[in-house]
Amino acid sequence: QVQLVESGGGLVQPGGSLRLSCVASGRIFSINAMGWYRQAAGKERVLVAAITSGGTTNYEDSVKGRFTISRDNAKNTVYLQMNSLKPEDTAVYSCSMGIYSGIKYPSTFANYWGQGTQVTVSS
C-alpha cells in the first residue's frame, strides 16, 4: 500500500509565499514523474507543475517565474515553492506520483494522489 501525504497549505496574504510538501510512503521501489495539481472552486483540476525522474520541470503558464517544483528522491518527497502568491492561486492543491511498488523489484505501477491541501490567498 502506498500513501501520499501533503502539508504546508494555509492562508497567506497576496504577495506572500508558501511551501507545499508531499511525502510518499509504503512499498515503493521507484518513483517516476511527480506533479502538483490545483482545483479552484467551480473549476476543473489543472496541472500546475511537474518534474520527471531526471529533474526536467514544466509549469502552467500562470505560475511560471513564481512557483518552483523540486524533489528529494531519498525522501520520496516533492515540494512546491510558491512565491508572489495571488488571489487567483486560491485552490485545493494535490500531489500526484507515478510509483512502481515493490521491494527487491518493481511489481506494479500506478498513479497515486494525495488528499489535497487548501491554499487561500487573501488580505
Comma- or semicolon-separated keywords:
about 120 residues; mainly beta; 4-stranded antiparallel sheet; 7-stranded mixed sheet
Describe this structure as you would to a colleague.
The chain has 123 residues and is mainly β. Helices cover 0% and strands 59% of the residues. The chain is built from no helices and eleven strands. It has strands at 2-7, 10-12, 18-26, 28-39, 46-51, 57-59, 67-72, 77-82, 91-101, 108-113, 117-121. Strands 2, 4, 5, 6, 9, 10 and 11 form a seven-stranded mixed sheet that branches. Strands 1-3-8-7 form a four-stranded antiparallel sheet, with no helix packed on it. Strand 7 and strand 8 (77-82) form a beta hairpin. It is elongated, with a radius of gyration of 14 Å. 28% of the residues are buried. The mean pLDDT is 96.
Topology:
Blueprint: E1 2-7, E2 10-12, E3 18-26, E4 28-39, E5 46-51, E6 57-59, E7 67-72, E8 77-82, E9 91-101, E10 108-113, E11 117-121
Parallel strand pairs: 2-11
Antiparallel strand pairs: 1-3, 3-8, 4-5, 4-9, 5-6, 7-8, 9-10, 9-11
Strand content: over 45%
Biggest sheet record? 7 strands, mixed
Rg result: 14 Å
- Net shape: elongated
Q: Compute the separation of the termini in Å.
A: 41 Å
Number of helical elements = 0
Instruction: Report the strand count.
Output: 11
Order of helices and strands: EEEEEEEEEEE
User: Structural class given helices, strands, pairing?
Assistant: mainly beta
Query: Mean of the pLDDT scores?
Result: 96
> Any low-confidence stretches, pLDDT <50, length ≥5?
none
Q: What percent of the residues sit in helical stretches (DSSP H or I)?
A: under 10%
